[in-house]
């Protein structure tokens, strides 16, 4: 298993977000995590790279228990993980070029020429050539998302964690991002976890889809399996018909 | 013996009303203790990350400029007028038997020992402390600090260490300028407005001057630099929520930074003089 989540519990004050949540992500697969807003999907992603600590439970990445690692080893592990933030989280005091180069500058063996070459290649992949010297504030929402993606893929990570990579994007850009996620998986064998609300994207890019509901996993299966699911909560969510779940719960 | 039934006598009154102020004091004390704990943790982490020179060094020189050089005008402005006022007030106070040259003595001692470092520190708590807290706070709420972590940068080494070092170096430098302009303003005011010769003012200035006073002022300025930048980083780093959280962090950084400056001022006076 390349990413293994075991019995995660997380609360904020009296609100329980994760309630004994376990999930395995196989090497090279793209797994989408779906669920209602506030279900704990982003919390799960942040927990995987130790940005957030659970109240209980373990996360194993590459055979290492994330919460047991000394800080230096945790940073070493993070170099193998690319993280695409929901709102891009670009450094607003830097140009797009410097944003994308940030992760690369932590790789001591790379020369400045190699860094610039990798930056250009990453920006080319997300169709942002020509925006190198612009500041994040000069980009549209979709361009910011793509720049965030370029920053995450620039280091050629083994794992990619995407937090709603296509939310708020137009259909054409959404398709471009989906194709890029698919290429990362198919060609570079990157293991990916995608948190999304967008079922069209989830069907297009995922090897498996997991549904998070009330702090634990409600369903895990292939896109075809989730489409065929008769569970009212799953069916209600994927078809966008809350009345199915409400009727079953009544 | 008749028992008092509060509820019967005044239906609007609850025993809880009496305990509310006590509980809020308790919450305040707990929050303060928690802040001291978190602040100490951040300080220890900052010291430990000092060795990550490759992360903080490239940020250091630009911060020397933005924290230090850019703060000189406001510090000079404040001390210039302080020097003017001190000279006029000293002249007003020292009438009759007190010799005029005491104006120089009072301006020099007061500016160097007290007003120069403290007013500079308070001004910079507003300018530098607020700027650091709002910048780091915005970075926190927009997940930029998380992004740094995800890119394998220690955010304490990247954001906190260069700011605190720049503050510790530049506050004494700014204070030297402040002291100079404060005394010079008092001197020029004495000559231009108080009918005093330059020699008389300088005589008073030299009368009680001790080189240790400068050392004392610089030690205070160094500690104020540490406090203002450290408190700004602490509140910025621990910002929660959105714009409101950034505003709260900024206000707290200025208020707490200013309060600590005044406490430290008394501490240094009690221990070093």
Strand content of chain A: 15-25%
Domain module count of chain B = 1
Q: Would you list the SSEs of chain A in sequence order as H and E?
A: EEEHEEHEHHHEHEHEEHHH
Order of helices and strands of chain B: HHHHHHHHHH
Structural class of chain B: mainly alpha
Strands side by side in the biggest sheet of chain A: 6-7-8-3-9-10
The DSSP helix count of chain B reads 10
**CATH architectural designation of the largest domain in chain A:** 3-Layer(aba) Sandwich
First-residue to last-residue Cα separation of chain A: 39 Å
The chain-level structural class of chain A is: alpha/beta
Biggest pleated-sheet summary of chain A = 6 strands, mixed
**Shape designation of chain B:** globular
The CATH superfamily name of the largest domain in chain A is P-loop containing nucleotide triphosphate hydrolases
Number of strands of chain B: 0
Mean pLDDT of chain B: 91
Residue runs with pLDDT of under 50 for 5 or more positions of chain B = none
- Please count the beta strands of chain A (DSSP E, at least 2 residues each): 10
Structure notes:
The complex is a heterodimer of chains A (250) and B (273). Chain A contains 10 helices and 10 strands. Chain A has helices at residues 41-48, 71-78, 96-104, 112-125, 141-154, 171-186, 199-205, 223-228, 232-238, 242-249; strands at 3-12, 15-25, 30-34, 56-61, 64-65, 81-84, 159-163, 191-195, 208-213, 216-221. In chain A, the strands form 2 sheets. Chain A has a 6-stranded mixed sheet, sandwiched between helices. The radius of gyration of chain A is 18 Å and the shape is globular. In chain A, 42% of the residues are buried. Chain B has 273 residues and is mostly helical. Chain B has one domain (52-272). In chain B, helix 4 packs antiparallel against helix 5. The longest helix of chain B is centred in the middle third of the chain and has 40 residues, at 102-141. The radius of gyration of chain B is 24 Å and the shape is globular. Chain B starts with 5 loop residues before the first helix and ends with a helix. The relative contact order of chain B is 0.15. The mean pLDDT of chain B is 91. Classes of the chains: A alpha/beta (250), B mainly alpha (273). At the A-B interface, helix 2 and strand 6 of A face helix 6 of B.
């Amino acid at each position: 298993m390349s990413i293994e989540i075991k019995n995660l519990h997380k609360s904020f004050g009296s609100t329980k977000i994760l309630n004994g949540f376990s999930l395995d992500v196989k090497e090279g697969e793209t797994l989408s995590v779906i669920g209602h807003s506030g279900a704990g999907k982003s919390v799960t992603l942040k927990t995987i790279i130790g940005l957030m600590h659970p109240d209980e439970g373990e996360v194993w990445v590459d055979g290492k228990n994330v919460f047991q690692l000394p800080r230096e080893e945790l940073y070493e592990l993070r170099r193998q993980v690319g993280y695409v933030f929901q709102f891009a989280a670009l450094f607003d005091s830097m140009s797009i070029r410097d944003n994308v180069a940030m992760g690369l500058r932590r790789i001591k063996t790379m020369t400045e020429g190699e860094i610039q070459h990798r930056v250009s290649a990453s920006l080319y992949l997300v169709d942002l050539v020509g925006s190198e010297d612009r500041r994040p504030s000069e980009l549209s929402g979709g361009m910011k998302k793509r720049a965030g993606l370029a920053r995450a893929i620039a280091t050629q990570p083994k794992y990619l964690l995407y937090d709603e990579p296509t939310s708020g994007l137009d259909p054409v850009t959404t398709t471009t991002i989906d194709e890029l996620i698919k290429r990362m998986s198919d060609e570079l064998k990157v293991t990916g976890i995608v948190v999304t609300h967008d079922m069209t994207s989830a069907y297009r890019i995922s090897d498996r889809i997991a549904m998070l509901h009330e702090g634990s996993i409600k369903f895990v299966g292939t896109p075809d399996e989730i489409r065929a699911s008769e569970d009212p909560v799953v069916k209600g969510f994927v078809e966008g018909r809350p009345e199915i779940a409400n009727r079953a719960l009544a | 013996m008749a028992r008092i039934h509060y509820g019967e006598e005044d239906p609007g009154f609850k025993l809880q009303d009496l305990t509310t102020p006590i509980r809020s004091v308790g919450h305040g004390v707990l929050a303060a203790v928690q802040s001291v704990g978190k602040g100490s943790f951040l300080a220890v982490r900052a010291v430990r990350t000092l060795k990550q020179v490759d992360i903080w060094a490239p940020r250091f020189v630009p911060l020397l400029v933005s924290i230090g050089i850019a703060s000189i005008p406001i510090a000079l402005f404040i001390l210039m007028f302080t020097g003017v006022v001190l000279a006029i007030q000293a002249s007003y106070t020292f009438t009759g038997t007190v010799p005029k040259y005491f104006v120089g003595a009072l301006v020099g001692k007061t500016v160097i020992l007290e007003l120069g470092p403290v007013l500079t520190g308070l001004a910079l708590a507003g300018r530098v402390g607020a700027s650091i807290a709002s910048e780091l706070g915005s970075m926190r709420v927009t997940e930029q600090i998380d992004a740094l972590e995800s890119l394998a940068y220690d955010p304490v080494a990247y954001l906190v260490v260069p700011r605190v070092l720049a503050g510790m170096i530049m506050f004494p430098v700014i204070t030297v300028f402040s002291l100079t302009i404060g005394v010079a303003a008092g001197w020029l005011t004495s000559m231009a407005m108080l009918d005093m010769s330059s020699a008389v003012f300088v005589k008073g200035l030299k009368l009680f001057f001790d080189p240790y006073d400068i050392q004392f002022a610089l030690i205070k300025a160094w500690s104020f630099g540490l406090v203002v930048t450290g408190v700004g980083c602490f509140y910025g780093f621990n910002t929660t929520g959105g714009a409101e959280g950034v505003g709260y962090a900024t206000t707290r950084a200025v208020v707490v930074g200013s309060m600590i400056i005044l406490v430290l001022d008394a501490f240094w006076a009690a221990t070093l003089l």
